[in-house]
Specification:
Helices cover 50% and strands 7% of the residues. The protein is mainly alpha-helical and 454 residues long. The strands form 5 sheets. The chain has a two-stranded antiparallel ribbon. The protein has a two-stranded antiparallel sheet with strand order 3-4.
Length: 454
């Protein structure tokens, strides 16, 4: 296909994406209607005998804060009715504040932390939401100190850490990103960064030396029987790329603590050392248990992670790029680009993507590829980006309340389709990814910083 035809085809896809964003946003503009549609088929979903609510008012993933993010972003798009979207974001933010009034912080995605994340994205003008931000700043700072103290106690006992203490969703990486953006509680920010930098010290588990970011066994990390001693996790959402990314971003902004550059170097070089390869190039597997980590050659070679935000080359490579930029190590950046190029060489039908959501569905991959294209046009990712966009757009269902339905394959033999309006597993996140692709520019509100992509 000629360059002219490629440009025409891309323009058409972007136009369709913009239209779908408009439609989805219209379906997510009335909070009461959103709640009604979400719970129409029941208030809870049951997956592997675990019940979870489909609507959580104060959750970034399944509540009002997700609607705030979408309308705050569209409220900065000069090609849209910005005032309408800003007012909608404001209305949803008020509901989110009410829903989290007496709820503790549970990281940057849940509880009062979800409100904090939503309001920092929504605040577009100088002094906007100042009193609310002052309260969320204080609560996030307190939580950073709490997590840092919890982490210190496990280190003093020689024990591994846990995702809920250090990752992006629940832990110090997400909280530190909030504090780095706000810069009103630098003592708490420095405590969070120091705690993450301390991960550079190795541990010993069952006689095996493992990195300091080894995760101990929990229900979340015990994914199979051989994970009884924990795991090494390579995903941006849950593993060491999260701490690496926020340490690098802070270094780049001149916020530095003892051992920070050593930690960045240790984490980046470890990621490079644990790259695996197939005929298409380098990749990372999602996680490794202790037996495989101790003797990789004695076990079957693990498969590549599903290309997504939470795991996979596009997210992990993003953290390497941040580290390379921070410490002036272009070879780290090149390694990230190489891994993403290898990722798109693998047949998409074998990627293992079975939904459209932002955590690990097609919109996740679209967002990441779009961001990679913007910063690394030399990588030649445009064809793959457009193909992914086409797959995501083909999944739009006009008859569904929000245009997209969330598929949970673990819910019984046929899986479960849910009408979800949220951020990581719902329509708001999908629309945000499509908006980034449609405009061909980085999010104006910086909402993707919640995912440690910026």
């Amino acid at each position: 296909m000629s360059t002219t035809h490629e440009a025409t085809a891309r323009s058409a896809l972007r136009g369709t994406a913009a239209d779908v964003v408009t439609e989805v946003a219209a379906r997510l503009q009335d909070p009461e209607a959103v709640v009604t549609a979400t719970v129409a088929n029941g208030t809870h979903a049951e997956v592997d005998d675990v019940r979870s609510p489909v609507w959580e008012p104060g959750s970034l993933n399944r509540g009002y804060p997700a609607l705030v993010l979408l309308h705050a972003e569209l409220g900065r798009d000069p090609d849209r009715d910005t005032e309408h979207h800003r007012l909608t974001a404001h209305r949803c933010l008020a509901l989110a504040a009410q829903a989290t009034k007496d709820v503790p912080v549970q990281g940057a995605f849940s509880g009062a932390g979800a409100l904090a994340s939503a309001v920092r994205v929504a605040a577009a003008r100088e002094g906007e939401y100042a009193s609310l931000l002052e309260r969320t700043d204080a609560r996030m700072a307190d939580y950073a100190h709490h997590l840092a103290a919890l982490h210190a106690s496990t280190r003093d006992a020689g024990l591994p850490t846990y995702p809920a203490v250090v990752d992006v969703l629940s832990g110090l990486s997400g909280v530190a990103r909030y504090l780095l953006h706000r810069r009103t509680r630098d003592e708490a920010l420095r405590a969070a960064l120091s705690s993450l930098a301390a991960l550079r010290a190795p541990l010993t588990v069952r006689g095996v030396e493992v990195p300091g970011w080894w995760f101990g066994p929990t229900k979340r990390t015990l994914v199979a029987e051989d994970f009884a001693e924990g795991q090494a996790n390579f995903g941006l959402g849950h593993g060491i790329p999260g701490p690496l990314g926020v340490l690098a971003l802070a270094w780049d902004e001149g916020v530095r603590v003892a051992g920070q550059d050593e930690a960045i170097t240790a984490m980046a070089e470890w990621l490079l050392r644990w790259r695996l390869r197939d005929e298409d190039g380098p990749y990372w597997t999602p996680y490794l248990p202790l037996p495989t980590y101790a003797d990789l050659d004695g076990h079957p070679t693990p498969d590549p992670a599903r290309p997504s935000w939470c795991y996979g080359a596009a997210g992990t490579g993003r953290a390497l790029v941040m580290a390379g930029r921070a410490l002036g190590r272009p070879e780290w950046t090149a390694a990230g680009v190489e891994a993403v190029r290898a990722m798109v060489r693998r047949p998409m039908d074998g990627w293992g993507i079975d939904d459209h959501a932002l955590c690990h569905g097609w919109s996740s991959t679209l967002l990441l590829l779009t961001r990679w294209e913007l910063e690394h046009p030399e990588a030649g990712l445009s064809a793959a980006t457009d193909t992914v966009a086409g797959r995501l757009l083909a999944g739009f269902e006009p008859e569904a309340p929000f245009g997209y339905r969330y598929f949970q394959p673990a819910a019984g033999p046929r899986g479960l389709h849910l009408d979800m309006p949220g951020f990581l597993d719902g329509a708001a996140g999908i629309a945000l990814a499509l908006q980034t692709y449609a405009t061909g520019r980085a999010p104006a509100s910086g909402w993707d910083s919640l995912l440690l992509l910026s």
